[in-house]
Request: fold
Amino acid sequence: MTEEPTFEESLKLLEEKVELLSRGDLPLDRALAVFEEGLALFRRCHAILSDTEQRVTKLVAAAEGLTEEPFAVE
Amino acid sequence: MDPIALTPPPRPAVSQALTVSQLARLIRETVRANPVLGRILVRGEVSNLQAAPAGHRFFTLKDSGAQIDCILFREDAELLGFELEDGMDMVVSGDVDLFPRKGNVELVVRAATPAGVGAFWAAYQRTRKKLAAEGLFDLARKRSLPSFPRRIGVVTSEIGAVVHDIVTILRRRYPMAHVIVAPALVQGPGAPASLRRALAAVADRVDVVIVARGGGSLEDLWCFNDEGLARAVATCRVPVVSAIGHETDVTIVDFVADVRAATPSAAAELLSPDSVELSARVNDAGRLLAEEIREILAVSRARVKGLGERMSPRGLRRSVEANRARLQQIREALTDFGPREILRHRERLGTVGRRLDLLSPLATLQRGYAIAEREDGHVVAHAAEVDVGEALAVRFQDGRIHVHVNEEAT
Reply:
């Protein structure tokens, strides 16, 4: 299973879409598609920035090896 | 002389005599059964140090009034973190035992730490020189930190303020990172091995590791001068940030870490791109995206201007409708971010949404407009460019048709 693109990757891709559009040599149809892809990335970056709550876990030794359990931080 | 001493001792009865082995075993059992003699701490000066071929160390621990033989087995010697030398003032921990073959009582040393500032300093300098000579502190081998770590490992005590300090910073600046705490002992004889285990366990799961400890005495921080731990930090598969003690404390681990931070909070800041800056970067990209598409649409419109009037609008309605719907979706996408967004984001989005309204020329353009091209794909911008009899392609949203020019422009 591939992981969801990270914020970093999404932001980089978004900036690539802008770069692609700014070259100005795309056919209109392709430009629109690039714009829509960029828009999706823009929304994704925004969602990550606004909604992320920090995950904190702790490594614990269990019978089947190491596992992680939630770690409460005041 | 005491007259009683003149009385001859009782003659031993052979049948009651112990063998030497039995006596040795008796002493051994007595020593082992005495809880005071197990897990004992003893301070003294190392002398007569000998390294056996098998890797064990034999030495005598002495003070001005007494001495006792000591043995340090190879596996414990390897965990020590430094080499014992004659003259070192040490605190050792271990168990008293008797070795029947030699018949003497020995201290089986499990761990040792230098005693007193002078001894600490000397051991520290030795380890530091050794690792420096091997190049472990070289700047060339320091790795740069990931700019957007997805997961951050924290090797530290799970009690105490370190985790709290780190998470407080990350929550404010970089909440998208997942923090994985790998608990470890951060002082005492078991700390170096515990820290190494925690580091090894967490390194496979994260992009970067913080090895941290709050402030403490020289003795408290001693485990971070451990040679084995220093080597583990140097060979860790991801970059390591050290944040040990106060800013004035510099341990061997600080020297081998890829980056040394003054405090755990500072380590967290080093690893967190500021989310306010990130917001600005995202919004800039969004704004540019809208500007670029507007520009592209404006250029497209200019290209077809003048030709469009000569084109028949028939057959275009379907594609126009489709593209209108597409544009409408884009517009809604940009304006419908909703009330969950914080105000700054909303304002930025409002800007983007307004810019998107500028896209509307496309809808107009598509209502019956098309692009004339030459066979090589070049856009024909002016009627005067075209000669009678020339073949052109006219591009619609849903495909091309080929046409011949019959008349000169009027």
Remarks:
- The mean pLDDT of chain A is 83.
- The CA atoms of residues 10 and 40 of chain A lie 9 Å apart.
- Chain A touches chain B at residues 6-8, 11, 14-15, 17-18, 21-22, 24, 26, 28-29, 31-32, 35-36, 38-39, 42-43, 45-46, 48-59, 66, 68, 71, 73-74 (CB under 8 Å).
- The helical segments of chain A are 7-22, 28-51.
